[in-house]
Amino acid sequence: MNKGLFKAAWYWITITQFAFTVMGWACNTAPSTDPKTAQAARGTQRSPSGKAASPGETEKTILFFGNSLTAGYGLDDPAQAFPALIQKKIDSLKLPYKVINAGLSGETTAGGRSRVAWLLKSNVDIFVLELGANDGLRGIPVRETRSNLQDIIDQVKAKYPRAKLVLAGMLVPPNMGSTYSTGFSKIFPELAEKNQLSLVPFLLRGVAGNAVLNQADGIHPTAKGAVLVANNVWPVLKSLL
User: Fold this and answer.
1) How far apart (Å, rounded) are the C-alpha atoms in residues 219 and 155?
2) Residue 199 forms beta bridges with which residues?
3) pLDDT-derived band at 28, boundaries 50, 70, 90
4) pTM of the model
5) Residue 64, phi then psi, degrees to nearest 5
6) CB-based burial label for 227 (10 Å; 0-12, 13-18, 19+)
7) Which of 33, 49, 101, 143 is 20 to 30 Å from the Cα of 190, by its Cα?
């Protein structure tokens, strides 16, 4: 994490609570076959508004590439997932962007590295990378997670050199060990700096560890929690539109 966020008082409060609920989670350890998330995994989910660009205006694409947090696992409607909420914000400003939700429950960075090429067959103007949580909760070596994320970034840049990239930061609970959790937290700001990416410091800021904002599993955001997640992402993304 960036130094300010990492040292903030809420970090230890929320992340300690977070630790009691993460065991056995791993963002759904196997890729979901739930029809609600399968379409999103294929990268075909459109915005709920279905809003088109104005005449003479080219509609651009924002691809959200992640795990169950992006897919909106457990929510009643895909329109409640944070990428769909981002689309509503975009539509309210009448900007010519469509959001594609390519979240897949259970996805790791290794799985994402293998899957991303298929999604890059369609044009991408902004790529939002939200992966790593499952790696962290499984204790996958930090160097492997970093390498996989770098490979995904490289694939996007090679295919679309002019695309803008956003990296969503994640933390793991301290019960993973201080050496591991510290090393993991550094992955995201360091990759963002190295590759000149826009960074969301901690995707679940204000949501992790808050029972009111999480589902019964204690980890996946409720519809209200997803609103806060969207608010964490929006200021970073808006600056790129």
Assistant:
1) 30
2) 167
3) low
4) 0.81
5) -95, 115
6) middle
7) 101
pLDDT at 35 over 60: no
Amino acid at 88: K
**Is 68 an annotated catalytic residue?**
yes
What is the predicted pLDDT for the residue at 8? 37
How does pLDDT run across 50-109, given as a tens digit for each residue?
Answer: 455 555 568 999 999 999 999 999 999 999 999 999 999 999 999 999 999 999 999 999
CA–CA gap between residue 238 and residue 86 (Å, rounded) = 9
Quote the DSSP letter at residue 240: T
pLDDT in tens, 138-158: 999 999 999 999 999 999 999
Residue 74 backbone zone (phi > 0: left; psi -120 to 50: alpha; other: beta): left
127 backbone dihedrals φ, ψ, rounded to 5°: -120, 120
Tokens read off for 170: 């994640």
Active-site annotation holder among 34, 91, 151, 217: 217
Q: Compute the C-alpha angle 5/6/12, nearest 5°.
A: 105
| 154 has catalytic annotation | no
The answer to whether residue 34 is catalytic is no
In 133-142, which positions are buried (b, 16+ CB within 10 angstroms) versus exposed (e)? bbbbbeebeb
CATH class in words for 3-45+57-238: alpha beta
What integer pLDDT is reported at residue 55 of this predicted model? Answer: 55
Which of 32, 68, 105, 185 does the annotation list as catalytic? Answer: 68
Tokens matching residue 58: 């080219």
